[in-house]
Amino acid sequence: MSRFFSNKYRSLVPYTPGEQPTERKYIKLNTNESPFPPSDKAVAAAAEAARLLQLYPDPTCGELTAAVATLCGVQADEVLLTNGSDEILNFAFMAFCDDEHPAVFPDISYGFYKVFAELNGVPYRTVPLKDDLSIDPADYAAAGGTVFIANPNAPTGLALSPAEVEGILQANPNNVVVIDEAYVDFGAESCVSLVHKYDNLLVTQTFSKSRSMAGARLGFGVGCAALIQDLNTVKYSTNPYNINRMTMAAGLGVLADEAYTQANCRAVCATRTQTREALLQLGFEVAESKTNFLFARHRGFGGAELYAKLKENGILVRHFNQPRIQDYIRITIGSSQEMQVFVNTLRTILEEC
Ligand code: PMP
To answer: What is the pTM for the complete model shown?
Structure first.
Protein backbone atom coordinates (compact mmCIF):
# COMPACT_ATOMS: atom_id res chain seq x y z
CA MET A 1 0.00 0.00 0.00
CA SER A 2 1.35 3.44 -0.85
CA ARG A 3 1.28 6.21 1.72
CA PHE A 4 -1.13 8.02 -0.62
CA PHE A 5 -3.90 5.43 -0.53
CA SER A 6 -7.16 6.98 0.64
CA ASN A 7 -8.17 6.25 4.20
CA LYS A 8 -11.54 5.21 2.77
CA TYR A 9 -10.02 2.11 1.17
CA ARG A 10 -7.18 1.11 3.47
CA SER A 11 -9.04 -1.82 4.97
CA LEU A 12 -10.81 -2.84 1.75
CA VAL A 13 -10.37 -6.53 0.89
CA PRO A 14 -10.93 -6.77 -2.87
CA TYR A 15 -12.87 -9.52 -4.62
CA THR A 16 -10.72 -12.50 -5.63
CA PRO A 17 -11.66 -13.61 -9.16
CA GLY A 18 -11.29 -17.28 -10.08
CA GLU A 19 -7.90 -18.15 -11.52
CA GLN A 20 -7.32 -17.28 -15.20
CA PRO A 21 -4.02 -19.13 -15.69
CA THR A 22 -1.77 -18.53 -18.66
CA GLU A 23 1.18 -20.77 -17.70
CA ARG A 24 -0.46 -24.04 -18.64
CA LYS A 25 -3.60 -25.29 -20.38
CA TYR A 26 -6.23 -26.49 -17.95
CA ILE A 27 -9.72 -27.83 -18.32
CA LYS A 28 -11.29 -24.70 -16.84
CA LEU A 29 -14.25 -25.50 -14.66
CA ASN A 30 -13.67 -22.67 -12.18
CA THR A 31 -15.33 -19.45 -13.35
CA ASN A 32 -18.73 -20.53 -14.70
CA GLU A 33 -17.94 -19.53 -18.26
CA SER A 34 -19.77 -21.13 -21.17
CA PRO A 35 -17.99 -24.03 -22.87
CA PHE A 36 -19.41 -22.80 -26.19
CA PRO A 37 -17.98 -20.00 -28.36
CA PRO A 38 -20.04 -16.84 -28.81
CA SER A 39 -22.62 -16.81 -31.61
CA ASP A 40 -21.12 -16.25 -35.09
CA LYS A 41 -23.53 -13.32 -35.37
CA ALA A 42 -22.00 -11.75 -32.24
CA VAL A 43 -18.46 -12.23 -33.55
CA ALA A 44 -19.26 -10.79 -37.00
CA ALA A 45 -21.07 -7.78 -35.52
CA ALA A 46 -18.22 -7.05 -33.10
CA ALA A 47 -15.65 -7.22 -35.92
CA GLU A 48 -17.70 -4.81 -38.01
CA ALA A 49 -18.10 -2.43 -35.05
CA ALA A 50 -14.31 -2.40 -34.59
CA ARG A 51 -14.08 -0.33 -37.79
CA LEU A 52 -15.57 2.63 -35.92
CA LEU A 53 -13.50 2.44 -32.77
CA GLN A 54 -12.27 6.00 -33.30
CA LEU A 55 -15.75 7.15 -32.19
CA TYR A 56 -17.27 6.98 -28.72
CA PRO A 57 -20.12 4.51 -28.40
CA ASP A 58 -23.78 5.53 -27.97
CA PRO A 59 -24.02 6.45 -24.27
CA THR A 60 -27.73 5.56 -24.22
CA CYS A 61 -26.96 2.14 -25.70
CA GLY A 62 -30.29 2.72 -27.49
CA GLU A 63 -30.56 -0.15 -29.96
CA LEU A 64 -29.35 -2.78 -27.53
CA THR A 65 -31.54 -1.43 -24.72
CA ALA A 66 -34.57 -1.75 -27.01
CA ALA A 67 -33.59 -5.31 -27.93
CA VAL A 68 -33.14 -6.33 -24.27
CA ALA A 69 -36.47 -4.68 -23.41
CA THR A 70 -38.16 -6.77 -26.11
CA LEU A 71 -36.45 -9.91 -24.80
CA CYS A 72 -37.71 -9.19 -21.28
CA GLY A 73 -41.19 -7.95 -22.24
CA VAL A 74 -40.65 -4.48 -20.71
CA GLN A 75 -40.21 -0.89 -21.92
CA ALA A 76 -36.81 0.55 -22.84
CA ASP A 77 -36.90 2.96 -19.88
CA GLU A 78 -37.12 -0.07 -17.58
CA VAL A 79 -33.71 -1.40 -18.70
CA LEU A 80 -30.10 -0.33 -18.09
CA LEU A 81 -27.15 -2.01 -19.81
CA THR A 82 -23.88 -2.21 -17.91
CA ASN A 83 -20.29 -3.40 -18.13
CA GLY A 84 -21.03 -6.91 -16.89
CA SER A 85 -23.72 -7.39 -14.26
CA ASP A 86 -21.03 -6.62 -11.66
CA GLU A 87 -21.37 -3.00 -12.72
CA ILE A 88 -25.13 -2.82 -12.23
CA LEU A 89 -24.74 -4.50 -8.84
CA ASN A 90 -22.20 -1.86 -7.84
CA PHE A 91 -24.54 0.87 -9.16
CA ALA A 92 -27.32 -0.62 -7.01
CA PHE A 93 -25.12 -0.47 -3.90
CA MET A 94 -24.29 3.16 -4.77
CA ALA A 95 -27.89 4.14 -5.55
CA PHE A 96 -29.93 2.24 -2.98
CA CYS A 97 -27.76 1.69 0.12
CA ASP A 98 -26.83 4.12 2.87
CA ASP A 99 -26.78 4.24 6.67
CA GLU A 100 -30.58 4.00 6.77
CA HIS A 101 -30.68 1.31 4.09
CA PRO A 102 -27.91 -1.17 4.91
CA ALA A 103 -27.29 -3.99 2.47
CA VAL A 104 -28.74 -7.36 3.52
CA PHE A 105 -27.64 -10.59 1.83
CA PRO A 106 -27.05 -14.29 2.58
CA ASP A 107 -23.88 -15.28 4.45
CA ILE A 108 -23.01 -17.62 1.61
CA SER A 109 -23.54 -15.97 -1.73
CA TYR A 110 -21.73 -14.02 -4.42
CA GLY A 111 -18.57 -12.70 -2.77
CA PHE A 112 -18.79 -9.35 -4.50
CA TYR A 113 -21.77 -8.16 -2.42
CA LYS A 114 -19.58 -7.71 0.65
CA VAL A 115 -16.87 -6.01 -1.40
CA PHE A 116 -19.35 -3.57 -2.99
CA ALA A 117 -20.77 -2.74 0.45
CA GLU A 118 -17.28 -2.05 1.80
CA LEU A 119 -16.18 -0.15 -1.30
CA ASN A 120 -19.18 2.15 -1.01
CA GLY A 121 -18.87 2.50 2.75
CA VAL A 122 -22.37 1.20 3.43
CA PRO A 123 -23.21 -1.00 6.41
CA TYR A 124 -24.28 -4.57 5.69
CA ARG A 125 -25.79 -7.54 7.48
CA THR A 126 -25.57 -11.17 6.41
CA VAL A 127 -28.36 -13.69 6.89
CA PRO A 128 -27.28 -17.32 7.40
CA LEU A 129 -28.46 -19.89 4.89
CA LYS A 130 -30.33 -22.85 6.34
CA ASP A 131 -28.36 -25.99 7.20
CA ASP A 132 -29.20 -27.44 3.79
CA LEU A 133 -27.66 -24.26 2.27
CA SER A 134 -31.01 -23.02 0.97
CA ILE A 135 -32.39 -19.50 1.51
CA ASP A 136 -35.40 -19.22 3.82
CA PRO A 137 -37.52 -16.36 2.41
CA ALA A 138 -38.99 -15.83 5.89
CA ASP A 139 -35.54 -14.66 7.05
CA TYR A 140 -35.95 -11.62 4.78
CA ALA A 141 -39.31 -10.49 6.15
CA ALA A 142 -38.84 -6.83 7.12
CA ALA A 143 -35.13 -7.08 6.30
CA GLY A 144 -34.57 -3.46 7.30
CA GLY A 145 -32.38 -2.66 4.33
CA THR A 146 -31.71 -3.19 0.65
CA VAL A 147 -31.84 -6.92 -0.06
CA PHE A 148 -29.44 -8.62 -2.48
CA ILE A 149 -30.24 -12.21 -3.40
CA ALA A 150 -28.60 -14.24 -6.14
CA ASN A 151 -31.34 -16.41 -7.59
CA PRO A 152 -30.24 -19.09 -8.23
CA ASN A 153 -27.74 -18.56 -5.47
CA ALA A 154 -24.01 -18.95 -6.01
CA PRO A 155 -22.11 -21.05 -5.17
CA THR A 156 -24.91 -23.35 -3.99
CA GLY A 157 -26.88 -23.44 -7.26
CA LEU A 158 -30.21 -23.50 -5.39
CA ALA A 159 -33.15 -21.35 -6.54
CA LEU A 160 -36.17 -19.64 -4.99
CA SER A 161 -39.48 -19.65 -6.90
CA PRO A 162 -40.95 -16.33 -8.11
CA ALA A 163 -43.71 -16.82 -5.49
CA GLU A 164 -41.05 -16.93 -2.75
CA VAL A 165 -39.39 -13.80 -4.19
CA GLU A 166 -42.80 -12.09 -4.21
CA GLY A 167 -43.11 -12.88 -0.52
CA ILE A 168 -39.81 -11.04 0.09
CA LEU A 169 -40.94 -8.08 -2.07
CA GLN A 170 -44.22 -7.80 -0.20
CA ALA A 171 -42.49 -7.98 3.17
CA ASN A 172 -40.13 -5.11 2.22
CA PRO A 173 -42.30 -2.51 0.47
CA ASN A 174 -40.02 0.36 1.53
CA ASN A 175 -36.74 -1.21 0.50
CA VAL A 176 -35.28 -2.19 -2.84
CA VAL A 177 -34.90 -5.94 -3.41
CA VAL A 178 -32.21 -6.82 -5.95
CA ILE A 179 -32.57 -10.26 -7.52
CA ASP A 180 -29.32 -11.24 -9.24
CA GLU A 181 -30.28 -13.67 -12.00
CA ALA A 182 -26.81 -14.28 -13.44
CA TYR A 183 -27.60 -18.01 -13.77
CA VAL A 184 -31.35 -17.92 -14.38
CA ASP A 185 -31.20 -19.34 -17.92
CA PHE A 186 -30.16 -22.79 -16.71
CA GLY A 187 -33.47 -23.92 -15.28
CA ALA A 188 -34.72 -21.36 -12.76
CA GLU A 189 -37.70 -19.04 -13.27
CA SER A 190 -37.03 -15.35 -13.84
CA CYS A 191 -38.72 -12.62 -11.78
CA VAL A 192 -38.43 -10.05 -14.58
CA SER A 193 -42.20 -10.03 -15.19
CA LEU A 194 -42.71 -8.91 -11.56
CA VAL A 195 -41.16 -5.48 -12.22
CA HIS A 196 -44.56 -4.14 -13.33
CA LYS A 197 -46.10 -5.27 -10.06
CA TYR A 198 -43.39 -4.14 -7.59
CA ASP A 199 -41.68 -0.76 -7.79
CA ASN A 200 -39.04 -1.99 -5.31
CA LEU A 201 -37.73 -4.83 -7.54
CA LEU A 202 -34.50 -4.67 -9.54
CA VAL A 203 -33.59 -7.81 -11.51
CA THR A 204 -30.06 -8.13 -12.87
CA GLN A 205 -28.89 -10.50 -15.58
CA THR A 206 -25.75 -11.09 -17.62
CA PHE A 207 -24.59 -12.07 -21.11
CA SER A 208 -21.56 -13.77 -19.51
CA LYS A 209 -23.00 -17.24 -18.93
CA SER A 210 -25.84 -18.43 -21.19
CA ARG A 211 -24.78 -16.07 -24.00
CA SER A 212 -21.06 -16.99 -23.97
CA MET A 213 -19.90 -13.39 -23.67
CA ALA A 214 -17.98 -13.23 -20.38
CA GLY A 215 -15.05 -11.65 -22.21
CA ALA A 216 -17.20 -8.84 -23.65
CA ARG A 217 -18.51 -7.66 -20.25
CA LEU A 218 -22.24 -7.08 -20.74
CA GLY A 219 -24.98 -7.18 -18.14
CA PHE A 220 -28.20 -5.35 -17.43
CA GLY A 221 -30.83 -4.46 -14.89
CA VAL A 222 -34.61 -4.40 -15.23
CA GLY A 223 -36.82 -2.42 -12.88
CA CYS A 224 -39.47 0.28 -12.83
CA ALA A 225 -38.55 3.47 -14.72
CA ALA A 226 -37.84 5.43 -11.53
CA LEU A 227 -35.29 2.86 -10.27
CA ILE A 228 -33.62 2.80 -13.69
CA GLN A 229 -33.47 6.58 -13.68
CA ASP A 230 -31.63 6.51 -10.32
CA LEU A 231 -29.19 3.96 -11.70
CA ASN A 232 -28.67 6.14 -14.77
CA THR A 233 -27.79 9.06 -12.51
CA VAL A 234 -25.06 6.88 -11.02
CA LYS A 235 -23.97 5.65 -14.45
CA TYR A 236 -23.69 9.17 -15.93
CA SER A 237 -21.74 10.20 -12.85
CA THR A 238 -19.17 7.41 -13.24
CA ASN A 239 -18.84 6.15 -16.81
CA PRO A 240 -21.37 7.33 -19.43
CA TYR A 241 -19.70 5.19 -22.13
CA ASN A 242 -19.81 2.05 -20.06
CA ILE A 243 -20.55 -0.29 -22.98
CA ASN A 244 -17.96 -0.25 -25.74
CA ARG A 245 -18.91 -0.42 -29.42
CA MET A 246 -17.81 -4.00 -30.00
CA THR A 247 -19.66 -5.31 -26.95
CA MET A 248 -22.80 -3.41 -27.92
CA ALA A 249 -22.70 -4.90 -31.41
CA ALA A 250 -21.96 -8.40 -30.09
CA GLY A 251 -24.91 -8.10 -27.73
CA LEU A 252 -27.24 -7.29 -30.63
CA GLY A 253 -25.71 -10.15 -32.62
CA VAL A 254 -26.31 -12.77 -29.95
CA LEU A 255 -29.88 -11.55 -29.33
CA ALA A 256 -30.53 -12.14 -33.04
CA ASP A 257 -29.45 -15.75 -32.50
CA GLU A 258 -31.70 -16.76 -29.61
CA ALA A 259 -32.03 -20.35 -30.87
CA TYR A 260 -28.26 -20.76 -30.43
CA THR A 261 -28.46 -19.52 -26.84
CA GLN A 262 -31.38 -21.81 -26.04
CA ALA A 263 -29.64 -24.85 -27.57
CA ASN A 264 -26.50 -24.15 -25.53
CA CYS A 265 -28.52 -23.85 -22.32
CA ARG A 266 -30.21 -27.18 -23.03
CA ALA A 267 -26.82 -28.80 -23.67
CA VAL A 268 -25.40 -27.44 -20.40
CA CYS A 269 -28.43 -28.70 -18.44
CA ALA A 270 -28.16 -32.19 -20.01
CA THR A 271 -24.43 -32.38 -19.21
CA ARG A 272 -25.16 -31.14 -15.68
CA THR A 273 -27.62 -34.00 -15.13
CA GLN A 274 -25.07 -36.57 -16.37
CA THR A 275 -22.25 -35.09 -14.29
CA ARG A 276 -24.41 -34.95 -11.18
CA GLU A 277 -25.33 -38.60 -11.55
CA ALA A 278 -21.68 -39.57 -12.00
CA LEU A 279 -20.72 -37.57 -8.89
CA LEU A 280 -23.47 -39.20 -6.83
CA GLN A 281 -22.12 -42.60 -7.90
CA LEU A 282 -18.65 -41.56 -6.76
CA GLY A 283 -20.06 -40.87 -3.30
CA PHE A 284 -20.49 -37.10 -3.53
CA GLU A 285 -23.32 -35.14 -2.01
CA VAL A 286 -24.43 -32.76 -4.77
CA ALA A 287 -26.94 -29.93 -4.46
CA GLU A 288 -29.80 -29.85 -7.00
CA SER A 289 -28.42 -27.12 -9.27
CA LYS A 290 -30.39 -24.70 -11.45
CA THR A 291 -27.16 -23.15 -12.77
CA ASN A 292 -24.22 -23.98 -15.03
CA PHE A 293 -22.26 -25.38 -12.08
CA LEU A 294 -22.52 -28.05 -9.40
CA PHE A 295 -21.66 -27.65 -5.73
CA ALA A 296 -20.49 -30.90 -4.23
CA ARG A 297 -18.69 -32.47 -1.29
CA HIS A 298 -17.28 -35.90 -0.53
CA ARG A 299 -17.31 -37.50 2.89
CA GLY A 300 -13.72 -38.71 2.58
CA PHE A 301 -12.01 -35.61 1.19
CA GLY A 302 -11.87 -31.91 1.99
CA GLY A 303 -12.58 -29.33 -0.69
CA ALA A 304 -9.04 -27.94 -0.62
CA GLU A 305 -7.57 -31.41 -1.14
CA LEU A 306 -9.87 -32.18 -4.08
CA TYR A 307 -9.17 -28.79 -5.63
CA ALA A 308 -5.39 -29.34 -5.34
CA LYS A 309 -5.46 -32.89 -6.71
CA LEU A 310 -7.65 -31.88 -9.65
CA LYS A 311 -5.33 -28.96 -10.40
CA GLU A 312 -2.30 -31.28 -10.40
CA ASN A 313 -4.19 -33.28 -13.00
CA GLY A 314 -4.88 -30.27 -15.22
CA ILE A 315 -8.43 -29.49 -14.08
CA LEU A 316 -9.40 -26.23 -12.36
CA VAL A 317 -12.45 -26.08 -10.10
CA ARG A 318 -13.30 -23.44 -7.48
CA HIS A 319 -12.79 -23.93 -3.76
CA PHE A 320 -13.93 -21.36 -1.19
CA ASN A 321 -11.91 -21.36 2.01
CA GLN A 322 -14.87 -20.07 3.96
CA PRO A 323 -16.74 -21.34 7.03
CA ARG A 324 -19.55 -23.84 6.29
CA ILE A 325 -18.48 -24.50 2.70
CA GLN A 326 -14.79 -25.39 2.92
CA ASP A 327 -15.62 -29.05 2.27
CA TYR A 328 -17.22 -28.24 -1.08
CA ILE A 329 -15.93 -27.70 -4.58
CA ARG A 330 -17.83 -25.76 -7.24
CA ILE A 331 -17.60 -27.32 -10.66
CA THR A 332 -18.57 -25.37 -13.79
CA ILE A 333 -20.35 -27.47 -16.40
CA GLY A 334 -17.99 -27.65 -19.37
CA SER A 335 -18.49 -29.51 -22.64
CA SER A 336 -19.60 -33.14 -22.31
CA GLN A 337 -16.05 -34.27 -23.29
CA GLU A 338 -14.50 -32.06 -20.61
CA MET A 339 -16.90 -33.42 -18.02
CA GLN A 340 -16.03 -36.99 -18.98
CA VAL A 341 -12.36 -36.22 -18.42
CA PHE A 342 -13.28 -34.56 -15.12
CA VAL A 343 -15.30 -37.54 -13.87
CA ASN A 344 -12.62 -40.04 -14.94
CA THR A 345 -9.87 -37.99 -13.30
CA LEU A 346 -11.87 -37.68 -10.12
CA ARG A 347 -12.51 -41.43 -10.07
CA THR A 348 -8.75 -42.09 -10.35
CA ILE A 349 -8.00 -39.57 -7.57
CA LEU A 350 -10.53 -41.20 -5.24
CA GLU A 351 -9.21 -44.71 -6.02
CA GLU A 352 -5.61 -43.73 -5.40
CA CYS A 353 -6.26 -42.27 -1.95
N1 PMP B 1 -23.73 -12.48 -9.99
C2 PMP B 1 -23.27 -13.70 -9.72
C3 PMP B 1 -24.03 -14.53 -8.73
C4 PMP B 1 -22.12 -14.18 -10.32
O5 PMP B 1 -21.65 -15.40 -10.02
C6 PMP B 1 -21.44 -13.36 -11.25
C7 PMP B 1 -20.18 -13.81 -11.97
N8 PMP B 1 -19.28 -14.48 -11.47
C9 PMP B 1 -21.94 -12.09 -11.49
C10 PMP B 1 -23.09 -11.67 -10.86
C11 PMP B 1 -21.25 -11.11 -12.39
O12 PMP B 1 -21.08 -11.55 -13.68
P13 PMP B 1 -20.73 -10.56 -14.88
O14 PMP B 1 -20.13 -9.31 -14.29
O15 PMP B 1 -19.79 -11.32 -15.72
O16 PMP B 1 -22.04 -10.27 -15.54
So the answer is: 0.97
- The alpha carbon of 304 and the centre of ligand 1 are apart by a number of angstroms equal to 23
Provide the 8-state DSSP code for 241.
T
Residues 222 and 301 in one domain: no
Residue 144 CA, ligand 1 centroid: distance in Å:
25
Sequence-ordered list of residues with C-beta below 8 angstroms from that of 32, at least 6 positions apart, any chain: 154, 183, 209, 291, 292, 293, 332
Residue type (1 letter), 281: Q
Q: Is 214 in the pocket of ligand 1 (CB under 6 A)?
A: yes
At 17 the pLDDT is 87
pLDDT band at 24 (very low <50, low <70, confident <90, very high): confident
Show the domain range for 324. Answer: 17-37+259-352
Q: Classify the C-alpha dihedral 82-86-87-88 as positive or negative.
A: positive
Statement: residue 274 has pLDDT above 90: yes
Same domain, 245 and 132: yes
Would residue 233 count as lying in a domain?
yes
CA distance 295 to 19: 18
- Alpha helices (H) along the chain: 40-49, 62-72, 84-96, 112-119, 162-171, 225-238, 245-255, 258-281, 303-312, 336-352
The answer to whether 103 touches 177, Cβ cutoff 8 Å, is no
- Check pocket membership of 152 for ligand 1, CB cut-off 6 A: no
- Residues 314 and 251 placed together within one structural domain of the fold: no
Ligand 1 contact via 244 beta carbon (within 6 Å): no
Ligand 1 binding pocket includes 38 (Cβ within 6 Å) = no
